[in-house]
Amino acid sequence: xxxxxxxxxxxxxxxxxxxxxxxxxxxxxxxxxxxxxxxxxxxxxxxxxxxxxxxxxxxxxxxxxxxxxxxxxxxxxxxxxxxxxxxxxxxxxxxxxxxxxxxxxxxxxxxxxxxxxxxxxxxxxxxxxxxxxxxxxxxxxxxxxxxxxxxxxxxxxxxxxxxxxxxxxxxxxxxxxxxxxxxxxxxxxxxxxxxxxxxxxxxxxxxxxxxxxxxxxxxxxxxxxxxxxxxxxxxxxxxxxxxxxxxxxxxxxxxxxxxxxxxxxxxxxxxxxxxxxxxxxxxxxxxxxxxxxxxxxxxxxxxxxxxxxxxxxxxxxxxxxxxxxxxxxxxxxxxxxxxxxxxxxxxxxxxxxxxxxxxxxxxxxxxxxxxxxxxxxxxxxxxxxxxxxxxxx
Amino acid sequence: xxxxxxxxxxxxxxxxxxxxxxxxxxxxxxxxxxxxxxxxxxxxxxxxxxxxxxxxxxxxxxxxxxxxxxxxxxxxxxxxxxxxxxxxxxxxxxxxxxxxxxxxxxxxxxxxxxxxxxxxxxxxxxxxxxxxxxxxxxxxxxxxxxxxxxxxxxxxxxxxxxxxxxxxxxxxxxxxxxxxxxxxxxxxxxxxxxxxxx
Lengths: 393, 198
Description:
- By secondary structure, chain A is an alpha+beta fold.
- Chain A has 14 helices and eleven strands.
- Among the domains of chain A are: 237 residues, 2-Layer Sandwich (archaeoglobus fulgidus dsm 4304 fold), CATH 3.30.2170; 31 residues, no CATH class.
- In chain A, helix 2 packs across helix 8 and helix 5 packs parallel to helix 6.
- The longest helix of chain B has 15 residues.
């Protein structure tokens, strides 16, 4: 056993001890109180002034409603409704293989509730080896589609398939389209402009089609790691200008300690205390830089207490600002979580459809190998890969 | 006759089929058939087992009921269950009709092909196949997941009903069983009790 577990064990104990101190519990209580009592008008003013003068050093969320507001789930449509969901899985390009290709599999689920319950579960696979798929061309250079860029291609395909599934859903009763993950494609922020210009229009076109058809589309993040709201609360701790946060001048020790604690607090435990099961938080505007390029499709979010945990729901602003669509999103997702014991069954079934098993991965490789062999070519993988597979002693 | 399932596993002695209707495999002991070569040949089987499980063996079946939602209402509350569960049944192969039109009561020369349809049999067909009872031994000797004499008893009950409560046939079947189980008093008595008309 090459991993020395004896060394790791005390370090795990140390991590647990640090994570559960009384001081941290006090700070969590203080953060909750800050959220409960925050003056939204004042906060908006602070955000406006500081947003104009200089960049706030953290990713903050702008409350669209009173920041501390909570809403119970509205009633579900009486005549029934449909939830369409998509998820994706990939076989990434393998640099140890002589051929460059990747495989995308979009899993889809369409669940109809009401007088005539129905379900359709299916998947759509794509084998991509053509130059336009595996590279993005920018000024004569070829940028390989892999890593985060493959994730963006997958997201684009998931949204496209979700749109087609939602469009074909039975016309009786409203339809909600859900995607697993985020609609804020922040990974684009780290990509060069050619990559953004390649992917973003596809994604935004798709969101526009949903808007044109009046079908609310949203994404669901289970146990989110975001800190946007906790970061926003930091602006209210000391009243000092955040551009001087590096020096932290003028704040009291208590303020300083709470501000530092907020830097480690995620929105999720904060709202687990703030919301009751089924309730949603205020709607927030995300300030992710990439959203500046979303135009009319700018994404907003709220948190939802699913009964088991806090989930983050993200949707274009036209969904969040329309009471009927926002209500359907809230009611249908709360209902999904109730049916699915804390997680939407539509997303779970879409995931099950999307999964590419280890056996299927091997089968794809074998099919490529056989296709090469049929033309008298041998599939030679890298020596490193062969060595890893053989694991000779 | 109505198609009731599709063969997903096949061998010289039995077939396994996915039922087209969830929770409704054909009755235990009933006669089913597979038509081959556009009906020129027909293989007969006796349903020997039924089961409903998750489609994906890697997924556990979890509790779904609540205080207010239970039994059939669970399937309204969770429509995806219709697509994530499946009902399968097994049938022991007990005979066939060849192009000559004769009923053969022994194992067919080839297993029925995978993905072919399994159909139910109407009462005339059951009456025709069960006129002789040489295939009873195949049922008694089969390695099945329930006591073979209980399987045979279920088949005799189903056939008796399909033949319009044919008492003469039932008496002949009982004599056949008595001959097959001579020297095995307990098994015989268990079977005879199980086929006694109510």
